[in-house]
Amino acid sequence: MMEVVLANLPALQVLLPLLTAPICFLVRKNGIAWLLAFVATLGSFVVAINLFEQVSNEGVLSYTMGGWEPPWGIEYRIDELSAFVLMLVSGIATVTLAFARKSIAKEIAPQSFALFYTALLLCLAGLLGITITGDAFNLFVFLEISSLSSYILISFGKDNRALTASFQYLIMGTIGATMLLIGIGFLYMMTGTLNMADLAARLPEVMDTNTVRAAFAFIIVGLSIKLALFPLHIWLPNAYGYAPSTVTVFLAATSTKVALYALLRFIFTIFGVEFAFGEMPLQFILIFLSVLAVFSGSLTAIFQTNIKHVLAYSSIAQIGYMMIGVALISVAGLSAGILHMFNHAIMKGCLFMALGCVYYRHGSARIEDFKGLGKTMPLTMAAFVVGGLGLIGMPLTAGFISKWYLVMAALEHGLAGAVIIFSVLAGSLLAVAYIWRVVEAAYFQAPGNDEKVEAPMALLIPTWALALATIYFGIDTQLSVGAATQAAESLMGGTP
Questions:
Q1: Burial of 94 (0-12, 13-18, 19+ CB in 10 A)
Q2: Does one domain contain both 270 and 301?
Q3: Among 181, 265, 329, 391, which is most buried by a count of CB atoms within 10 Å?
Q4: How many domains does the chain have?
Q5: How confident is the model at residue 495 (pLDDT cuts 50, 70, 90)?
Q6: Rounded to 5 degrees, what are φ and ψ at 380?
Q7: Domain boundary residue among 246, 277, 308?
Q8: pTM of the prediction?
């Protein structure tokens, strides 16, 4: 029995949340729905850990659906990068579900709880499917599953502006998905296959055609919308700002990370380094837009009054750091980008959970409501400070490690490297400015009420789990740096 389970772990990775989602909806009992959702996400996390260990020990895993061999059948393909992202997404989902039960009680109507868990599990299944599939069209299908459920999740926000934010995301997401589908259609027209490994093998014969160049452009722009790369980020601030706290935590820590994964998969695995960065001018475009993202996101964050919007614009800047690493076209740069993807998910999850704790007690995430919280909610604000220090890139935090590796990678690139290093340092200083605004209000301004109103332990425990992870991965980097480096080496195919 155990051998059968182990042999079908790739299928279980997606099936656990996908099959549990409709059960949650049918059950309708809030406690049972939450328990089912939590067990499903925890099971997915255990499966992801097992797959990560298998890939580390045995190399790339291929799982064929229904016994149909690729490229004719649909293949789940797990390599170093996909195993790393599967573990990240399912781990964040597990911590988020632990946080969700208490948090949504204050932000969502009780009759909507079962639907909420159903949508969250569908979103998780979509994100895991994007990461594990080896089929380009399947990637699009899973992208739509995650996107449609995301629109529903955002619309659960109490503020009426959540509906507008959800609709705006729907419009932008539909444009992005349509462009991705057109690009995949062009590739199929030229090669007759949708299997990613088969696409990579067949594309060189038709690479010097306008159809393939058009496919590349459509796919890059479409996924950049999903990634919220500047200037295609307009859906993100309001989506994060008006969604329920649990939804903001989950989307901020996973959605854009999986979009980055999909972008890396198309650029490096399917089109290849020589085409993407040689024949096509992708490097200059990515560096230019990423540097703009760092400055525009950080500067805009400074002037926000809602802390959710502060952190949302900060995410735009952090996406810029990740894409700078990708644009360096080296194992060191790509490792730094993947590492920052991992570290940012943990840090931003911690920060949004801390905001969720404040919202639970005060019903607001505006900066004026943070006055004196260092005294009245000391554990919550301490976790926020830890996440904020990571975002700045202070030593002994995860953020320092990824920014350090990014700077080291940039040193090899002359004038472009100097611009990148300046951007990283300037972006960190700007992060000090917007994080300090919150710290100043919490610790240096008097509270309206001196009574301690700390968040419940059900919220503090998952928040501090991510806060401690922010510190841990700033000290012990064996897992994060090792996995990111292996993934980068695999993507670059031996290119130094």
A1: buried
A2: no
A3: 391
A4: 2
A5: very low
A6: -65, -50
A7: 277
A8: 0.91
